[in-house]
Specification:
Elements: H1 3-8, E1 12-14, H2 19-38, H3 46-68, E2 70-72, H4 75-84, H5 88-107, H6 113-134
Helix pairs in contact: 2-3, 3-5, 3-6, 4-5
Length: 139
């Protein structure tokens, strides 16, 4: 599958580039990361903390696509967008986090605090890389 297939099937819509939306998403992502980093991750909070870290990563991807003039209606499309941009390593990690988030949200799976802490570190690193490479002009 390719990113173009998601456009063809209506799961991604071409739109005008929206730098204002991208700026807003980057700004709220920064606030959310600050909030999440202050939380204690334990067996009670792990599920919610993990899904929220995923949401921040997704927001950054939405910002990148907003700048490029796309509106995404399928989280899976982000994986193929990243692959098309030459970000295969990040695409695979994103897809892994998408599956973890789905298993938590839709199948009631648990996740350990240790795994969340490891994943959170990877997500923060991915966000930094994506911002530097694809959102350097959005402040």
């Amino acid at each position: 599958m390719k990113f173009e297939d998601f456009i063809q099937h209506g799961k991604v819509r071409k739109a005008s580039p929206d730098v204002a939306l991208a700026k807003s998403l980057v700004s709220t992502a920064a606030v959310d990361l600050k909030f999440l980093s202050a939380l204690q991750v334990n067996s009670t909070s792990a599920r919610k903390v993990m899904t929220n870290y995923y949401d921040v990563l997704r927001s950054i991807l939405e910002a990148i696509l907003a700048v490029e003039g796309y509106k995404v209606y399928s989280h899976e499309a982000f994986t193929y967008f990243l692959k098309d941009k030459g970000e295969s390593f990040i695409a695979e990690k994103f897809d892994r986090f998408r599956r973890i988030r789905n298993s938590i949200n839709y199948y009631g799976k648990d996740i350990s605090a240790i795994e969340v802490k490891e994943n959170a570190g990877e997500i923060v690193e991915m966000i930094q890389i994506l911002k530097e490479k694809h959102l350097s002009g959005v402040k």
